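Morning!

As promised:
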Amino acid sequence: MTTVERDNELSSTVGKPLLDGADDVKFSVRKLAVHYAELQAVHDVNLDIGQRQVTALIGPSGCGKSTFLRCLNRMNDIIASCVVQGEVHLDQKDIYAPQVDVVALRARVGMVFQKPNPFPKSIYDNIAYGPRLHGQADSPSALDELVETSLRRAGLWAEVKDLLHRPATSLSGGQQQRLCIARTIAIQPEVILMDEPCSALDPIATARIEALIGELKCDYTIVIVTHSMQQASRVSDRTAYFHLGRLLEVNATDKIFMAPEHPGTEDYITGRIG
Amino acid sequence: MTDIRSHHISPGFDAELEHLTGHFQRLGGMVAQQLQDSLRALVTTDRAQAENVCARDQEINERDVAIDRLCMSILARRQPAANDLRLVTSVGHATFDLERIGDEAAKIARICVEMFDAGISPPVVDQIQAAGEMVLDMLRDVLDAFARLDSVAAYEVARRDALLDVSCEEIIEATLQELIAREQNLAGSLRMLWIPRALERIGDHSCNLAEHVVFVAKGEYVRHMSLRRMAKRVQS
Amino acid sequence: MTDPRHLARRYRRARLLRWCCLAAVVFALSCVMLLLFDITRKGIGGFSVQRLSLSVRFDPELLGLEGLEPRPEDLQFADFPALLSASLAALIPGAGGDGSQWTALLDDNADFLLYERLLADPRLLGTEVGFELPLSGWAERYLDEAGSKQYATLVEAELLSTLDWLVEQGLVHLRFNDTFFSAGDSRSPSSAGIHSALLGSLYTLLVCFLLSFPVGVATAIYFEEFAPSNRWITLLEININNLAAVPSIIFGLLGLAVVINFFGLPRSVPLVGGIVLALMTLPTIIIASRSAIRAVPPSVREAALALGASRMEVIGHHVVPLALPGMLTGAIIGMAQALGETAPLLLIGMVAFVVSPPTGLMDPAAVLPVQIFLWADSPERGFIELTSAAIMVLLAFLGVMNIGAVLLRRRFERRW
């Protein structure tokens, strides 16, 4: 059975939503459906997310891509009316199983949000919050070191090393967003989810974050929701196109942006009325 | 060629693409006209017309640059994706092919002028004329296929190239025999051999155009592929 | 093109609106200023007192204390009025008689001050001690109003001229009225003070704050963070909001019925007053705290959750600290309301005549507004200025609370 045939059996998604080698799959999502009270936001999504890859989720507003992203670290749990059906496996383990601890899951699957949201504390405390919470640093010096490595990885160390105790809100928008990424890295997650991380940033700050994503993908699995197709094409390895709550197409990013298979995808990424 | 698709949200983008394809089609028309004129000059031994063809080549070169500029502008300012990206890049490539076809037509015209000046009557004119008609049809059909993004029609053009190659070989053979029989001004007459060569190159360029049509329409690279594999891609 | 006349009309309308708003502000401000001015004018006298410097020799003979070491109970029967009369007679020249006619110059309880002094130090017996004794109410007013002849008909001319003579001699001094802050309530204006009322208010507010703030904040957190959205919770929310609009006297009735009659706590004590005021303040605190919690940006919550903080950690580490300034503002508003509240306290008996300052939460006490209410009701002229003075103290108390609230907010407030 070829991949395409297997896909057709599973859903209406065209392209290659499923990966062949099981070792490389970080998340495997099967028959995922999300309801908000009466409204169904996500319909029957089947998707594999590859390890140490950047997977971009694109689609028009309200297409369910953010909802889908939030299913991956169970951030939808905090919305009372939200019901998630189907299976989401992280390393072959269902994260919606009753015995799964959400707190532990979120320590493995970090998230960066649309608007930079540092805590109204110092830069240092922002980074140190997660490790302190999870008891990841045994001593103050270990914590200092962790803060430094996290900031270095986020490319922010040189800019803030002398202002660690200044309020994080005094940083610029781009710096704040990199701080949020550093804060996420500090708890040593396996996956980083990014929900439109650059939508509030100027082009230079955006370019910095994109460069950072390129570096981080060596160590982390990254899933990024973006409204900027150029951004998806620049940073991602695979791209998934959502439309009206359905996953229409998943393919290598090159393929999506040069010759998408689904006419809906083509209309969206060429800027036609879909 | 954009009218068969749905429109962009930005009408300006639609207009630019239409502008680009319009220019491309006009250039295609001009090149076909050049080819036709050079062939007619050969058949009717009309020196003036042949010189005209040579002169008009400059205009074709200028249009080639203009289209290239348009492509660059769209790429830089619109960042086209998917079929738009394929269209714009392929129009760029195809324009290069058209310009080369124009060069070949001019070359035929130039050879005609030289031969007329040297008082040599061109040999095997009937055969060249037949082959020329064939090339001209191929060129017109492939331009038509480009306009409609019809990959099947484009494939048909590519298929005819083999036939053309055969008849060009025959022309070369016949020309050589004719020249040997004439036993006069051999050196000047040898340039005649360039004409079937030029026709053959034009056929190849038409094939390239056909491949671009398939790429734009299907998103598949069919360059440097056997006809059989190309057929498979076209039908998928 | 915009029609310039139309544009001019729009500007005119905008200007009109501005002037209306400004006029409203000026009106409100002038009302407040008028009130403050009136109260200050009436009350400022309450903070000062005219005193007569008088040298008194504690003559054992005059006092009827022949023994060298008098016991305290002996002092109670000593004749201090006679001593006072004699001292006055010694001071004022040309006086016939025993000087008792001059005692009308001094406050009624001037002799009591002499008694208190001797009681404190019995060894002073037989020695001479300098006193500053308060003048009587009419004398003080006479001096305040700069020799008004209004009193000529009421008071003997001889007393008035003597008073003038004393002032000329420099024996009468304007002094700060420390009695006002150190004494409890009294039937006599000159010896009445707000000490016990101030302490009573303090205790009552303390109880009120300690009860209502934690309960209010906890309720607000429950509603915002944990409550399921069902009909009962909605009903509860509506009721709490309505509770804020319930007339305060109802809370007094509730306190009377439940706290005093059912639980059997004593009347007139700060504990009961605090409980009743806490009930009244709760809705305000709950509503303010809820809106403060709601104002915490969801992005902060999300950030903490995404870092793997549990729900309790999100609330404890982020939501409550960020909402604290808003909660404190609500609490201070509630406290200010409670501080000025009279009606419910009347019902639970905090209207009693309390002389001695309360020593604890279970000691009968008055509170400032009730004290003001009582004094405003008193016929003596001296209470008019005491009432206004007490109002000024109440306002100052409020002012201090508000400044405290602002400082606390500054301390906790963070930008985001």
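Residues 82-118 of chain B form the longest helix (37 residues).

Hope this helps with the figure draft.
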